[in-house]
Amino acid sequence: MIGKNTNFEVHDPEVLAQARAVLDACNSAREMEEAVLAAVARNEEWRGKRCINLLAPEAPTSPTVRALLSAEVGIRAAEGHIGSVNRWFAGTQHIDELEALCIELLKKVFRARYADHRLMGSMIGNMAVYTALTQPGDVIMSVAQPFGGHSSNLVDGPAGVRGLKIIDVPFDPVELEVDLDLFRKVAPLVRPKVVSLGLSMTLFPFPIQAMREIVAEWDGYIYFDGAHQLGLVAAGLFQDPLAEGAAVVTGSAGKTFSGPQSGIIVWNDPDLTVPITNAIFPVLVATHQVNRVAALAVSAAEMLEFGQVYMEQIVRNAQALGAALHQRGIPVLGAHKGYTHTQQVIADVRQFGGGIAVAQLLARANIITNKNLIPTDRPEDWDHPSGLRMGTIEITRLGMREEEMETIADFIARLLIEKEAPANVLEDVIEFRQPYQKLYYCFEHGLPK
Ligand SMILES: *Cc1c(COP(=O)(O)O)cnc(C)c1O
């Protein structure tokens, strides 16, 4: 196809054609600028003020974190490691100060000996880990997608690009946890260099300590890709992967951690410092958005002050939402073990038309979720999976508690069980959302009342 069809686009060609039509209708570049600004404003008005945003990887940032993303320091170039001799450019003394504050804050928050602040995404962190800990051709073990595994640790992501052979970590489809007995049998047969525990559908903790003991026999590493659970880990909830024996932890700063979208990496072993930091610079990042580093540092301080209450409420809300949906006849995974230990709630929506139809239906009533593979799906079903993933980060930061989860479950049940038209539910969703416009668990607004 590619090469023969000169009009090939990976993006939806209709949406691109619409954009071309908008630009063609403009009389000046100034009007083109206005078209961009108008799209931004429409999103802010809709998603920012009128929707119940239940996307599990999304978090609203505090006013200070958002403001820092347009700070002057964001136009400065500061590649390399901290310190005047290490930097390519002169004039970086205040940038050094601020980046060092970020690193030291991250170490404190994650109770880690080492941290790096330069990852522009958790994906870059995965690549840094595979670059540092593996050679092409090595065997790793990783969790398959129907159990929540993320592409970054599989063949079509950084692990695949590194040329690794990837074997599944056995997973129990009912308990939604690693099948440790089977792992004990399989792992010694393939002796993985790295066992990657990275789930984008994540409900319950991993037996890191037991797995570490098994792979220690051939000096294998446990790598915890805590993209989603990072805020929970910072707050001392979920689990403490470094203390339990993970060699390295990465994660997204913009999921439960609620900072600027980017990545975090922490580790304890001094022998890993050179391989990991050399993989970050000069391999994966050069100018690394110092404004984002400042925002990350502030979100780490917020986590120290508010993390525990904030994250506990996120999990309580997720458990309440899971129970409320289940009671209304919408099957939720993990019901026999309290639904979840994270911000996520996973519904099996096969009987309502499947993940994509349900996500699109809910979006017409301003309830934003995503389709998701679940253990009964095959990996190749990724575009029409049976599950629906929801998360409680944003609704919690807006000040909602367990009671509001009942209301949200009512809206969803009206759409899925009672088959009410989305247009009917829409007005009620907008009205419900209207009073929740202020963000809490930050220095500006403190805790919700
Ligand atoms: C979201 C996610 C990533 C990618 O994180 P980004 O910050 O978006 O780059 C990596 N691993 C897992 C398990 C994820 O869920």
Which labels suit this protein?
single chain, 449 residues, alpha/beta, Aspartate Aminotransferase, domain 2, Aspartate Aminotransferase, domain 1, 2 domains, seven-stranded mixed β-sheet, three-stranded antiparallel β-sheet, 16 helices, binds pyridoxal-5'-phosphate
Protein described:
The chain is an alpha/beta fold and 449 residues long. It has two domains: 236 residues, Aspartate Aminotransferase, domain 2 (3-Layer(aba) Sandwich); 128 residues, Aspartate Aminotransferase, domain 1 (Alpha-Beta Complex). The protein contains 16 helices and 14 strands. Helix 8 links the parallel strand 7 and strand 8. Helix 4 runs parallel beside helix 12, helix 5 packs across helix 11 and helix 12 crosses helix 15. Pyridoxal-5'-phosphate (PLP) binds next to helix 5.
**Overall pLDDT metric:** 96
Number of strands: 14
Strand-pairing-aware structural class? alpha/beta
Could you please say which CATH topology of the largest domain applies here? Aspartate Aminotransferase, domain 2
Spatial shape:
globular
- N-to-C CA distance: 58 Å
> What composes the largest sheet?
7 strands, mixed
Strand content: 5-15%
**How many domain modules?**
2
Main sheet: strand order: 2-10-9-8-7-3-4
Second CATH tier, the architecture of the largest domain: 3-Layer(aba) Sandwich
| Helix run count | 16
Which cofactor or ligand species appear? Answer: pyridoxal-5'-phosphate
Query: Which class of the largest domain in CATH terms?
Result: Alpha Beta
Identify the CATH homologous superfamily of the largest domain. Type I PLP-dependent aspartate aminotransferase-like (Major domain)
Q: What is the radius of gyration computed over CA atoms, rounded to a whole number of angstroms?
A: 22 Å
Q: Give the ordered list of helices and strands.
A: HHEHHEHEHEEEHEHEHHEEHHEHEEEHHH
| Unreliable sequence segments | none
Helix content: 40-55%
